[in-house]
Amino acid sequence: MATAEALRATHAVDDKLTGAAKDVQAIKRESSTSYIDTEFRVSRVLVGSQLWESLHRWLSPPDPSTNHNIACRTHHKGTATWFFQGSIFENWKTTSSLLWIHGKRAHLLHFPPDMV
Amino acid sequence: MLLTPSLSSTVIQDIEAVCEVGSTSMSYFYFDFRDANKQNLDDLVRSLLTQLSARSDPLCDILSHLYESHDRGTKQPGDDLLTRCLKQMLSIPDQGQIYIIVDALDECPDSLGIPSPRERVLQLLKELVELRLPNLHVCVTSRPEVDIRDVLGPLTSCPVSLHDQSGQKQDIVDYVRSVVYSDSEPIMKRWRTEDKDLVIKTLSERADGM
Fold this sequence. Notes:
The complex is a heterodimer of chains A (116) and B (210).
Chain A: H1 2-59, H2 65-74, H3 81-84, H4 87-94, E1 98-102
Chain B: H1 4-21, E1 25-30, H2 41-54, H3 57-68, H4 79-91, E2 98-103, H5 117-130, E3 136-142, H6 146-152, E4 160-161, H7 166-180, H8 186-189, H9 193-206
Parallel strand pairs in B: 1-2, 2-3
């Protein structure tokens, strides 16, 4: 009788140990996966930016931001508010379409020599 | 330069603000007759491709396929492959809104070859619009040259003419006045008031035909 009880107790302990071992395994698996995940993401970001730099070097495009910066500097405050407050611009922003703005380019700062 | 580059730069700034908060993307290009690297279809497309792919992994992947297929970048792609790549990028489903802004198309030469550089750019713009992508917004500014009007006119429901706008004329008057009366202009500072006013009047009138 006592032997049978001792045996049951041993089995119970055994089961618990097995369960604990499984938990440990699961935790190990999980943590290593998330470790690998993090590593993977970091390396992907690195590869991404390195890749883009290679692509950029390969295509060597002209840099339009230089023109943009000049245009921003020479922009006269308040210019074209009629356009930006109007419905045409707002419609273009919200609806897929082509907006063609045609006008003249005025070099107003370049006066002919006989004027100055 | 006052009119269209200024307008384009403001359009770009406006869209840039939208890009910061959402999945919206934008790329822009300024044609420039003073810069030989900013006058051809090739220049435009290379610039748009790199700008678009800088912020998106899926678009970067498309460009990297082109790179791989050119022996890891040891060869250069032709215009046809570059434009095909651009269309492929724009056509990826489930992207946010995409804005393309092209300034001063008239500074892309309309001579030098058949078809001319400008004809080729116009053809690309036509093809992009005809893709009828629901999220693609294209803005082009230029002088009202006949060849540009012929292609872009039919593609747009509402072309904006800067000459017809009284607001635009007022902008020019305000601008000329601010320059002529500016303290930082040593030469004009010496002018008599009636001369300054004559300059403002004359330039403002002529702006309509400049």
